[in-house]
Amino acid sequence: MLEVLIAILVMSFGIAGAALLMAATIQYNKASQYQMVALQIANDLAESMRANSDGFMADAYATTRAYSANRSAATVPACSASAACSSSEIAQIDLAQTTNTLRRSLPGGDFNLQRNGSHADIWIMWLEPRAATSLPMDGANCRAGALTSGSDKPRCLYWRAAL
Known about the structure:
Layout: H1 2-51, H2 53-57, H3 87-105, E1 110-116, E2 119-126, E3 155-162
Antiparallel strand pairs: 1-2, 2-3
């Protein structure tokens, strides 16, 4: 009888360990999915800037703002001339569309961007789900000016694109 109770106890520890392993697997899988989405959005933004190199070289894409998980959706501007948009207007449209894509695709999605010569430095930021509290969210890889004290620290993906 004692042997059966010990066997049940050992078995319950094994089942509990397997359940915790499954929970961690799901958690890290979701984190990986968010990183992949962030990478895809950064790449799409880099391609938009390559297509509008005049706007990029004029710093029309530069975006420096403090991170906010509650940023509202951006209004996509229209071009002033219906026949053709200026490079600055195209940049504003691209930035608004990127902001809206981030808000839909990542929880608390936001970004910063700066031109560094012929390179674009892009920071994609988002909040991990509260269930992922064991994952470090210390703002590593985030642009220093983007983080404010007291706010939730986002997860950041830094991407440098040559244009």
